[in-house]
Here is the input.
Amino acid sequence: MANQDIAPLSLTVERDLRLDLFRGMGLWMIFLDHIPDDVVAWLTLRNYGFSDAAEFFVFISGYLAGYIYSPIIRGGNFLAAAKRLLTRVWQMYVAHIMLFLLFTAQIARTSRKFDNPMYKDEFNVANFLQHPDILIGQALTLRYKPVDLDVLPLYISLVAASPLILWCLLRRPNWTLAGSAVLYVAARWFDWNLASYPPGTYWYFNPFAWQLMFVFAAWCGVGGVAKLQVVIQSRVALVVALAWIAFAFLIVMTWHSAFLESLVPKWMIKAIYPIDKTDLDMLRFTHFLALALVVTRYFPRKSEILTSKWLRPMVLCGQHSLPLFCFGVFLSFGAHWILVQYSHGVWMQLLVSFGGILIMIGLAWLLDRTGQVPNLFVDASGIALPEAAAKPGTA
Here is the structure.
């Protein structure tokens, strides 16, 4: 007879469509940002503030890990939760390796067929094509990554650590968050990062720094949001957040205007630069928090607009983030190839950009249709895991 003190895993986890919406938005932004010199990429967040889609994904992944799995772990089913999280890690790892192999093959074939070495040099696959025996092993250990494939290894490392993170958060949430902050400071102070290939290089997304965003999000997911309601509803906090968003916008505009750049005091330039993405610069982190505060305050969970047919394509993409991300990498390279080989005019940029997004929407719709049949996952003890718990949303 099952232990009556153990909470059942077949609980219903209410889906927050806001997370799917912003994850879908992030997928579209990543696709556009990966197309060099694309006029449509001016629509993405990185052109108007310090943070970009990377912060979206890491925060949403951490929040969902805490929100979905904390009730399961509280109920005494830590091993079942860890099993599902580590299964997700394995799925992402396999997806990354398959994406790596297909992506490098695509670039190699394009470079050879069109006799243009720019592709293999621009996407950092020239070394792989010269020494595949060495680089295959480096790729399997996540040390070697072509351009545009840096983010999945970060997710893999963070989700792999999430069972321990959640176990600590459920026992000492504030101390765990403080420990994450200490690790962040130490990583930046002592230049801690994971080694990459070739020797002397490091991961583009430093997991020792980016874990702060993930742990903070998981802290919110296990109940921290309730503790922050006073801040979220504070007018002072809102004014500070809006001021910080406006400041970030003005600074980013100086990157595109020599006149505006000349107006920035030199002491401020020394204080804020470089705005480091690799080590999650605090300017990026706080900019994202300011955006999150405004969204949380004025975009409630039950907002009617979330069920609008106009937002449905973006929500649908967000609900299938891992396959859409992988497919988007191929689409962005294909768009780049068309612009290089045929035409780089504005109309062609519009065509490949919006055409790529339409293809992503079509794939998301197809995946949604094929997933209509409910799946049932059963752990070793015979307890059913709901589909919500089987999909932690960590892509």
Notes: The beta strands are 377-378, 384-385. The first strand starts at residue 377 and ends at 378. The chain is about 65% helix and 0% strand. Residues 76 and 213 are 26 Å apart (CA to CA).
